[in-house]
Amino acid sequence: MGISYDADGDRFLVYENAENGSLENWLFPDSEASSDSLAFLSWSQRIHIALDFANGLHYMHDHTQPSIVHWDVGERNILVDSNFKAKLANFSTARPVTNSSMPKVDVFAFGVLLLELLSGKRAMETEENGEVVMLYKDLSEVLKVEEKSVERLQKWTDPKLENCYPLDGALSLAALATTCTQENAQARPSLAEVVLNLSVLAQSSPKTMHKFSTSKFKTEHCGSSHSS
Question: Which CATH number describes the domain made up of 17-218?
Answer without folding.
Answer: 1.10.510.10
